[in-house]
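Risk register update: the risk of archive-format incompatibility is retired. Evidence:
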Amino acid sequence: MSDWTSGYVSEVDYTHDFFHEMTPAALALAATSKGHKHGLAHANLSYCELGCGQGFTTNLLAAANPHIEFHAMDFNPSHIAGARELATEGKIENVHFYERSFADFDAETTLPKQFDIIALHGVMSWVSQQNRQLIVDFIRRRLKSGGMVYVSYNALSGWASVMPLRRILLDRAAQGTGPLEERITEALRFAGQLEGTGAKFFQANPLASARLEKSKQMSPNYLAHEMFNADWTPFHFADLAEELSEAKLSFLGSTGLLDHIDDLSLTPEQIALLDGESDPVRRESLRDVLANEQFRSDLFVKGARRHTERGAIGAWFETPLALMQRYSGGPLKLNWRSRDIALDPAQYTPILEALGRGPVTVRGLLDQGAFGQMTWAEISRLLTILIGAKVLSPCLPLEGAQARRAQCQAFNLAVSKRAEDSETLRFLASPITGGGVEVDRIEQLFLLAYSEGKTEPTQWADLVWRILSAQGQRLQHEGQVLQRPEENLALLQARAVAFAARRLGLCKSLGVIPAAANVTSGVGQVDVGQPREAAA
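Archived output:
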């Protein structure tokens, strides 16, 4: 393997995913939820992603947040070339990509002196200790006082029983020849054969069996980067916190808001045990064991500043919220860590109905009477659950909405045009939330047709079928490939009608309609400054 990879997989390209937790508005709310100040409300912010992979998350965030300058690096030249290409197609001017290693990135002369946010998704567990030290040194020098670091990584508690399986897979793949994807498939087959002999390891470690079965269903491209690097370190939380403390970072909280409410996933006995530990680092280490945590996404801060009780409530009041799921009445069914979350429809229905008319601040919801007679403790708990479950999302203020809309429309056009040939990119940028909205390939093509003035679902289906049939592609229905053109078209028409009824209104309210590609039409324009219906 070439030295420039530092042991990281370079034969197989990384996936083009969007990671919601890295959204600036989401990071700000995670801090607010924990009662901390965040400093992300002012202008002229700078954001750095270390190890950006394909750069899709950074590109989307830059499109949705033109008031922030984004800088992202990765060692893989094909990743950086692809990220720059998408930025050009999407007409994004506030993003900068660098083909650099952790060793030489700090010497880049065009970087800002310091950053407000530094993000590392899926990096720390997959690089060497030497590279982790370089990362910590970069953060120490380049993060502003009061700045925040997002970091996600594998947790030791959930991976400990799987580590022998991972080593077997790694060694088996190293013995083979041919493309890495084929060697990964063969390694999984061999591990299945090993389990089939009645190996006592799998009998004693059912999580390893479950992980093996799950891995067989995953893309080899994803597995290559997840489990087949030379360096692979699941962390005990205290160990990672100690490494980051060298950069003067302290733990602020999980970016997953549902983890901010203990009784959603822990028993009263477990909560009592946790409450007996006052040290936040030791407390999180215990929580990992109680939950058998496999993956963490955390927020650290350089110089924590807590709100007063009044200030914490005020920060919530100023937070704008948007509806992320169509709501047409009836009970919400939410689940977290294999537990159902019980919510009172009488409490959440007025909130969802109010947000169905457009984004509103928490203070605005209060003024409208959406909270009824709830106490503040009940309000903050309910909002935390609804946001953590992605029913709601924090969003950006009205100021700057027009610039965000224009940049998102251009980016979404570039993404939707790529959907003519590929299903790789599955998210569009929202000028409302400053983040991404999941929209699959066919739905993107529906939106592309809609933006060009085609208002009837049958027209959208016709456009999609012309694209698919020209490429020799067919749809599947109930596990069967549809061969006849009329069957494919009928299924597309049914999907288009359903999309118009269930998803189009939400796409409008979140501002993800792409710019019109071929015609000048007001159909694809969304006035983000006015209240909008979020669902048909």
